[in-house]
């Protein structure tokens, strides 16, 4: 919200600097982003009257004689298409500063001396979006009453100070000049004084021209007035200045009046050309699926059920609360005007404006709320302004459908409740003074009091809201600073935080570097490495296709980082990331996705580089698997690795699923060569784990156990098994023997070839036994080996060699 300080001072008697006001507002609940003045950086700009204007042959230039209040006219060469004799213009004198600190100097153009510059508003630094259309391609023409030689700043209100407010949703009442005036008046204990306009009506009833109806419970009220015989012309300069300083482009006197009322009351309004109606029955209803409307910006909008529209003859003429329709817009030929003031459901307006990416000043106010008590007042005010500025005749009466509660809201509390929350000793007189400043009614009975909250403050409904208002106006800096007494508590990490920290420490200790990649990616990459792809969650307004959907895996983003580094000759990479992936099992347009914490890493290049005595060692599957084994060992978890060919982007012969307690928690393996080629990377190994599942199996660190003083005993065993038998199968068979003294199992040899039956392989294991309380005898170890042998023969049909 951009607030004109000049305008604000007309509404409330405040006589402090804009900087002081900004500081005071920020400390009482409405944050001020900053204070600027349009004239900052500009100098030596005066009013000039063009006395004569001669075309320069064979050019677009004009040789002008301009009266700038000096003894003699000033010759200036100007190329603007709308320059002509008899108009008042902005002149930058030699030595003047205009936008971008550009200094104007005397010079010659095509051999003609030019003693200054005739300026457009763009050349003064005003953005194109707020410059009146009639002057958007040329110079600004000043009002006839402008005096040559005078500074142009007062004529265009460039000497104003613009206060930019950061309005939170709960203080949408400050999205109007009246709302800001009430706030400033409360801060400084002043009174507001709002100008009134008397509405003169003719005898002809407005109800003879139009009728109004509501056909949706999302429309709370709809009110209209008819103004006939208006003259469409530019608004007076003061009105154009107000709108431009508020960031709104002046259009014409009718449209500008509706925008003025929007800024003044915070009440969105719209003006229709009555003569363009194909009927006289105005109905506010919900759109039908597939209906279309061409809005004022010339875009054809396809409507869906739930959008609110204003219809005439059952044909949409406006997108309610968002933007009007082109077919009924006000143009230079308009004579009869229908003014609209309504209240629409904020949720519906937000959904429509969001779906169409069509945010407007009106939609933002309907989304946050409007003052019920001034809807009709704003309508009458706009009609009175049209009578004054457009010469229109207002027909008698309003045409209204629906009604709104306008009486104050009663909210009760007590002095003890307030003082207990604020730590103060406020009295009944203090409370009276505070609510008097706010303009609220108050009734006190003993310790209790009831506040009559006007409808302009729809954010106040419970007693906690009253406490906040009291604290704001009383002054946060006046509240006691003593901290409340409370028992001390011991801070502690959650299980999730503890797991992430431990995983990060372990993986960094293994030589991997942490990175952070985008959670947004393309639709294809979002599901590329996902074990169980789900519905895609798309952004409504993505910055680009590359950042349009939420990821369902981290690996694809890491491969982009690998490719970025590889392209810059940084090929030996060991990277990891702990982040969120997003699983969408519901309706992507309505339901939020499930957030899953994942760990992913990528390994590429060499583990050990070649030197004079060491050969180069490239990354392989077993190195990637070793990282996981070290991680799971530190976490005290046992997992199984199951070969898989089901992940299309992974190498079918070098990829395994990771299974924890019967549940798939991730995968590890080599990126498919074709996928690696698509990413422009070399041979790369990746893994991704579901940390949320790991967390459910994660426990605190093991309690220290004293190292036994009794020696361990090792035995080797060689097995002949079928090729289909896996290492995991053998480990499970050995453990199934139930030997309590078995402390370690290591595979040290796998052989298949000569002297081995076809379809079979030889696997050799080293088994370690240890008794923590006594020495083991050979007879005990022999019994253990016999039990293990029997289990192997039974479970995997092993032949002991």
Mean pLDDT: 92
Percent in helix? 25-40%
Radius of gyration: 39 Å
Total strands: the figure is: 43
Q: What is the helix tally? A: 20
Would you identify the regions where 5 or more consecutive residues have pLDDT less than 50? Answer: none
Domain count, please report it. 6
CATH topology of the largest domain: BirA Bifunctional Protein, domain 2
User: How does the helix and strand content classify structurally?
Assistant: alpha+beta
N/C terminus separation: 86 Å
CATH superfamily of the largest domain: Bira Bifunctional Protein, Domain 2
CATH architecture of the largest domain: 2-Layer Sandwich
Largest sheet: 7 strands, antiparallel
CATH class of the largest domain: Alpha Beta
GO molecular function: ATP binding; catalytic activity, acting on a protein; magnesium ion binding; phenylalanine-tRNA ligase activity; transferase activity; tRNA binding
EC number: 6.1.1.20
Family: Belongs to the phenylalanyl-tRNA synthetase beta subunit family. Type 1 subfamily.
Pfam families: B3_4, B5, FDX-ACB, tRNA_bind, tRNA_synthFbeta
């Amino acid at each position: 919200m951009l607030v004109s300080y000049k305008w604000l001072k007309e509404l409330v008697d405040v006589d402090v600097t804009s900087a002081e006001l900004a500081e005071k507002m920020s400390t009482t609940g409405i944050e001020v982003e900053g204070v600027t003045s349009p004239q900052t950086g500009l100098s030596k700009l005066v009013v000039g009257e063009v006395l004569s204007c001669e075309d320069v042959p064979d050019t677009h230039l004009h040789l002008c004689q301009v009266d700038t209040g000096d003894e003699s006219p000033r010759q200036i060469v100007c190329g603007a298409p709308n320059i002509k004799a008899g108009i008042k213009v902005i002149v930058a004198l030699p030595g003047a500063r205009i936008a971008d600190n550009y200094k104007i100097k005397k010079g010659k153009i095509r051999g003609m001396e030019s003693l200054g510059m005739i300026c457009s508003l763009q050349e003064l630094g005003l953005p194109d979006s707020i410059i009146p259309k009639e002057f958007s391609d040329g110079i600004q023409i000043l009002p006839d009453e402008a005096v040559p030689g005078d500074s142009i700043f007062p004529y265009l209100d460039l000497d104003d100070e613009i206060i930019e407010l950061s309005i939170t949703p709960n203080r949408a009442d400050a999205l109007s000049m009246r709302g800001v005036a009430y706030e400033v008046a409360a801060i400084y204990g002043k009174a507001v004084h709002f100008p009134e306009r008397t509405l003169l009506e003719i005898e002809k009833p407005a109800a003879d021209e139009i009728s109004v109806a509501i056909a949706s419970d999302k429309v709370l009220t709809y009110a209209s007035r008819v103004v006939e015989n208006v003259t469409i012309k530019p608004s007076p300069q003061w009105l154009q200045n107000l709108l431009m300083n508020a960031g709104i482009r002046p259009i014409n006197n009718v449209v500008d009046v509706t925008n003025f009322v929007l800024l003044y009351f915070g009440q969105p309004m719209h003006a229709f050309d009555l003569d363009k109606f194909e009927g006289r029955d105005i109905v506010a209803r919900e759109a039908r699926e597939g209906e279309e409307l061409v809005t004022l910006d010339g875009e054809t909008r396809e409507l869906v059920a739930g959008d609110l529209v204003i219809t005439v003859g059952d044909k949409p003429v406006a997108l309610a609360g968002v933007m009007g329709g082109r077919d009924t817009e006000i143009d230079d030929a308009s004579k009869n005007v229908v003014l609209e003031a309504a209240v629409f459901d904020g949720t519906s307006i937000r959904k429509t404006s969001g779906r169409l990416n069509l945010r407007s000043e009106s939609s933002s106010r309907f989304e946050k709320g409007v003052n019920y008590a001034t809807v009709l007042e704003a309508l009458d005010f706009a009609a009175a302004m049209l009578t004054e500025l457009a010469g229109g005749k207002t027909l008698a009466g309003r045409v209204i459908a629906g009604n709104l509660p306008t009486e104050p809201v009663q909210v009760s509390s007590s002095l003890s409740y307030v003082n207990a929350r604020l730590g103060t000793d406020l009295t009944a007189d203090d409370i009276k003074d505070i609510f008097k400043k706010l303009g609220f009614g108050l009734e006190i009975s003993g310790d209790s009091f009831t506040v009559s909250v006007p409808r302009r403050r729809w954010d106040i409904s419970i007693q906690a809201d009253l406490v906040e208002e009291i604290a704001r106006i009383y002054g946060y800096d006046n509240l006691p600073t003593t901290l409340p007494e409370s028992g001390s508590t011991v801070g502690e990490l959650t299980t999730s935080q503890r797991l992430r920290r431990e995983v990060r420490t372990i993986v960094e200790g293994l030589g991997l570097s942490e990175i952070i990649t985008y959670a947004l990616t393309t639709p294809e990459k979002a599901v590329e490495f996902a074990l169980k792809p789900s519905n895609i969650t798309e952004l409504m307004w993505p910055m680009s296709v590359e950042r349009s959907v939420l990821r369902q895996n981290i690996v694809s983003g890491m491969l982009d980082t690998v490719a970025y580094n590889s392209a810059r000759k940084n090929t030996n990479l060991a990277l990891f990331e702990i982040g969120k992936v997003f699983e969408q099992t519901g309706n992507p347009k309505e339901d939020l996705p499930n957030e899953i914490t994942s760990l992913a890493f990528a390994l590429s290049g060499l583990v050990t580089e070649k030197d004079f005595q060491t050969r180069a060692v490239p990354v392989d599957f077993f190195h990637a698997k070793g990282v996981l084994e070290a991680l799971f060992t530190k976490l005290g978890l046992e997992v199984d690795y199951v070969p898989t060919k089901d992940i299309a982007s992974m190498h079918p012969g070098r990829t395994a699923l990771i299974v924890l307690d019967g549940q798939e928690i991730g995968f590890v393996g080599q990126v498919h060569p074709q996928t690696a080629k698509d990413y422009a990377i070399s041979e790369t190994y990746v893994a991704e784990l579901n940390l949320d599942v790991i967390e459910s199996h994660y426990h605190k660190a093991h309690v220290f156990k004293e190292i036994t003083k009794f020696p361990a005993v090792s035995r080797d065993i060689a097995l002949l098994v079928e090729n289909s038998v896996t290492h995991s199968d053998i480990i499970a068979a050995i453990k199934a023997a139930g030997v309590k003294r078995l402390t370690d199992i290591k595979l040290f040899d796998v052989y298949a070839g000569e002297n081995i039956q076809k379809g079979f392989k030889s696997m050799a294991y080293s088994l370690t036994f240890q008794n923590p309380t006594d020495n083991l005898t050979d007879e005990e170890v022999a019994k253990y080996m016999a039990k293990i042998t029997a289990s192997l023969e039974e479970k995997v049909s092993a032949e002991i060699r």
